[in-house]
Structures are given as C-alpha cells and as structure tokens.
Amino acid sequence: MKEPMNSRRQFLRSGSALIALPFLESFGFRRFASAANKTPAPPKRMVFLGMGYGVTEESWFPSEDQPGPDYELPPGLRALERHRADFTIVQRLTNRWSREGHAGSTFWLTGANQFEGGATFRNTISADQVAAAQFGRFTRFPSIQLNGADPDMGQAGHGPGLSMAWDRRGKPVAGLNSPLALFHRLFSPDNTPLKERRQLLEQKRSVLDAVLADARDLQRGLATRDVKKLDEYFDSIRDIETRLVRDEDWQSVPIPKAPIAAPPASPVGRAEIEVMYDLMIAAMQTDSTRVLTYRQPISTLLTSLGIQVAAHDMSHYTPGERKDASQRRDVALSELLAGFLDRLKATEEADGSSLFDHVSLVFGSNLRTVHQTENCPTILSGRGAGVKLGHNLVMPKDTPLCNAWLTLLHGVGVQVNRHGDSTGLLKEIIA
Q: Residue 218 and residue 5: Cα distance in Å, rounded?
C-alpha cells in the first residue's frame, strides 16, 4: 500500500485538474524534501545455520586460555581467516534441559525442557519464529525454513522436527527440502488470474467458517482434557485464518524478478549448500523474507567430499578414518560459511551499505561432539544485532544458550522479556 500524501503538500489547480507538486525547498519545505529523498534504512534480518552431529572438538574450538581477539584460529575454522574480524566464537553456552545425543537442531533454538509437565515430548517456540512474528508483517513470507536433502534428515544428527523452526505452540514448522523448491517458492509467478485466486481464498474461508462453527458446537459438554485438545485445534484454525489474510494482502503484489538463475534440480552435499546460500541471499535481497533457518545436510556432504564413512559413525569418531572424516567435514563447512560471508559483504543495499551490515547470522549446533550437549558450538556474525565481532568469548560454565538468542532478538529490535530458559541478556557479546 502507498503511504498517504503529507497534508502540507502543495497543489496546482486548473479548472477541474488538481496536480500535486513535488516538495520544493524554495517553498520552505526543506524538511519534507529531505525526507522524501532519503533512502529508508535497510531492514534487520536473522539467519540461523544448523549443523548436525556437532564438531571435532580438538580441532574446532579455540583454546579457552586465549579469550579475546588475539586467539589462534584452530584448523577446523582456519578457512574463515579472511573474515576473522567479522565473526565471534562464543564458548560454554548450553541448553541445560537438552540431553538428546542426536538432536543437534530440535531444541537448539528453543531451549525447551522436553519432559516438562510429565510429557514424553514437548517443545516451545524457536528464536527464529519469535523474530518472524514481528518481521513477518512486512514480507511475503514471514520466515523460510530449509532442510538439507539428506535421506533421513531426522537421523542426520538434527533430531525430530520438520525443520529447525517450532511455532508458538511448540509444533514443528515444515521446511523446503531442495534449492529448486525454494527458487519456485520465491520467484515463480502464479499464473492463475487474480479473480480466480480470490475466489479460491473465499472458498477456503467458507470451509474454515463451517468447520469452526461445528467445532464450537462440539465443545459443549466435553471433558477437560478434550477441551484442551479442542483449544489447540482452535489455535491451528486461527493460524490458517492468519495465513489466508496474508494471502489476500499479497494477491496483487507482483512476485519479484529473480536476481539469479534457477538452480539445478538436485545438487548434492557441498553443491546444495552453496546454492542454498545463494538463494538465501536472493530472498533477503528481494525482501521476500527477513528470517531464515537452514538444517544443513551431513550424509550427502560427506559423500560429495569423497568420504565413505557414514555420518553417524563419523560423529562417534576415534583416531583414524572417522576422525579424519569429521575434521574434513568441519573444514568444508567453514569454507562454505566463508563463501557465504563473502557474498553477504558483496551484496549492496539501497543505501550503499552491505547485506552483512544488517544481518544477524548464527552458525552452530545443539551438540558439541558425539553425544555431548554442553558447550554448544556457536559462531555469531553480521552487524545486524550489534554483536561484538572478532573475539573468542569464553562464558562461565553452563551459561544458557538462550541468553544469546535473547540478546540477538533485542539487538535486531525484537523486545521480548525472555526466551526458553534464558536468565538475562548476554552482555559479553554486545559491542
């Protein structure tokens, strides 16, 4: 929608014509002329990149005896040397409730206690979805969730879930499983005529109204436990209604032109991650979304590197072939991350700054190594959240990882009181 014309705007009248004048400094409207010509500040974005099965701790973590900017970059991160001043490693962050040895993503962004209240499994909202609730009002897609094309993503060190994202009810949010699917979601136009699309939305709304009316009739006389289930159902209906409203709002807004060519149908492993990174930049460049998560592939990454060790075996590494595979995996992911940072810095915003200047980027996992869940591998980058960059920060033992998420959310302007098991802001990471 266009913004309303300023009430002090001057006009020329001639017969039946009414013509708006531009803001003219000679008429004393310098302030308005300046405002009219000023390029809006680029929006903040959040990107979470998750890896399964943790890292090779002996060669990935810098020494805790070298805190601050003057630390030796370990072999697993050496590919990031050219960006040394633009990322920070934060050590000793932990999700205290998370004890799942193969769940590198499930609780990473939530910090939930999966057994709270006697549940066999529960989760809570992930940090990306907290941001999406605010940022998503301004973009076609409130958030985009991506998954690597591993045959068994849930068993690839990531754990249960349809992506890394979990909604406000702790339910999994579905993700896209290929670069081509993401390209079509972002840039393929819907050729259905606008009138027909609106009719289809009206049909969906009519069905939704009828189902909701029946459900409310059913609510009378139910047992307490069934009422709770029905309330969850109502929440789901409200979410669908919200999506329908969003669809209506964006019906007449053209799909942006793709700034890059369509990707190949099924790139594998390393090639997939490279293409996904390119598409993530395109999504932010066109302001299609401001929140992205990516559960990266591990099994196919190993295969693409010519490694014959199975991903699970690699995660339980011992000296020899398994450890070599784990270290080669670390190096490859660091090289890919370095390339992503190159592209973020090279992508220019409308005001001349770079995309890197407005992104809050996280790279990490809920797993340290093998089945160990304390000291989650955590790299923070981007200038979007006002984070101190270029440091090896060593926190007190068992500092809540959610303190970092809370601090990043505040840094990009999402003012929430707490997140997960947070105990406060992580002031050590604030620049």
A: 50
Q: What is the pLDDT of residue 264?
A: 86
Q: Which residues pair with 354 in a beta bridge?
A: 348
Judge contact between 391 and 343, C-beta under 8 A.
no
Contact predicate 289/141, CB 8 Å: yes
Both structure tokens of 64: 């805790």
The CATH number of 45-188+257-429 is 3.40.720
| DSSP secondary structure string for all residues of 187-209 | H----S-HHHHHHHHHHHHHHHH
Query: What pLDDT, on a 0 to 100 scale, did the predictor assign at position 21?
Result: 45
The string over 176-200, giving b where at least 16 C-beta atoms fall within 10 Å of a residue's C-beta and e elsewhere, is bbbbbbbbebbbeeeeeeeeeeeee
Enumerate the domain spans of the chain.
1-38, 45-188+257-429, 190-253
3-state helix, strand, coil in the chain (%, to 5): 40, 15, 45
Q: What is the mean pLDDT of residues 331-341?
A: 98
pLDDT for position 7? 39
The answer on pLDDT for 194 being more than 90 is: no
- Give me the chain's average pLDDT, please: 85
DSSP-assigned letter for residue 42 = P
Whether 50 has a pLDDT exceeding 90, the answer reads yes
Spatial CB neighbours of 393, under 8 Å, sequence gap ≥ 6: 67, 88, 89, 90, 91, 428, 429
Q: Residue 18's beta-bridge partner residues?
A: 13
Parallel, antiparallel or unpaired: strands 378-381 and 87-94: antiparallel
d(CA 112, CA 115) in angstroms, rounded, equals 9
3-state secondary structure of 124: coil
Which pLDDT score, from 0 to 100, does residue 66 have?
Answer: 97
Angle between helices 194-219 and 224-250 (to 10 degrees): 170
Q: Give, rounded to a whole angstrom, the gap between the first and last alpha carbons of the chain.
A: 37
- The Cα 277–Cα 344 span in angstroms is 10
Beta-carbon contacts of residue 44 (< 8 Å; ≥ 6 apart): 135, 290, 358, 359, 360, 384, 385, 412, 413
Q: Does position 344 have pLDDT exceeding 90, yes or no? A: yes
Q: What are phi and psi of 91, to 5 degrees?
A: -105, 155
Q: Write out pLDDT tens, residues 56-90.
A: 999 999 999 999 999 999 999 999 999 999 999 99
145: Cβ–Cβ under 8 A, 6 or more apart, which residues? 162, 163, 164, 165, 173, 174, 175, 176, 292, 293
Tokens representing 50? 């998750």
DSSP assigned state of 387: B
